[in-house]
């Protein structure tokens, strides 16, 4: 990682300055702020339902955050690599893409290693690892294929994944199914990764596992196609109108497909790809209309979006550190009057945040919001100083 004092963010989540969309920065910032909010409640035992993931089939607003980010990665690739594609996308570009992907994967692996650094039980996959793989594959696809080919590839991935999970018998089970521990994706995870290296609460499968990364690439492809549309020479009003229309149709397609291939984040089902992709298109269309089109570049009219931009331009940095710092705090012990010890994170929450609240869910939400506000202060300072940490 390196620190830059000029505005030219990484292509992983942020377009280069010359072709930057402020609305894309803001939409990314909203997504990352939401990610920090749901990942850092004050008390994991008391969370409002919309801030939790669906138990299995179905979805909540929280289930949309990760696919929104992968969608944004796809959109950003078209801005960051658009010029390189026109120049043929040579070996040097591919090397940079591979290097960034490896760096992201290793950052995610480090989070999984910390603090035990036990290679025998470390989780191999994770959020940053999936972002790395989606970025790698979608970048190479963008450099070597046309929008039409990308559309066909998206269809093949989604239909193929649907057939894989609903038609192919699961070894050791004998029939296809979508149950948590006996579906085909879970079988691949525990066969290749082994139970020692998957998500510990799930025990024998991983929500960011190997097979489910295939449709996650489809989410990135939805972003690629959206980015190609936004970079076209069409009128801005026409762009927004079509984004809204297509976004509604894609969302509807996901809801219809849900009837026979349930929306499921853990499996990253094809219906989930369409639902989240369609809603992401609608969200970006709104941001694009209000920030880039209606504001017309007027700084004063765009000021409301700047807090989200501050989150968006350092998205990977804040996600990584917001996961690392609470783990460090949990290692620091604070002695209590009764002789017991609590970790620093719990001590701060119980001492300064929870006491004013009678409802533990409100206290837990206040803890999460406090964490987001602290990061906003840090990121706002970085934004003002034009400090961009690139991966």
Automatic annotation (TrEMBL):
Residues 20-236 form the Heparan-alpha-glucosaminide N-acetyltransferase catalytic domain. It holds the Pfam family HGSNAT_cat. It comes from the Bacteria. The chain crosses the membrane at residues 64-82, 97-115, 127-145, 152-170, 209-230, 242-260, 272-291, 303-325, 365-383. Keywords: Membrane, Transmembrane, Transmembrane helix. This is N-acetylglucosamine transporter.
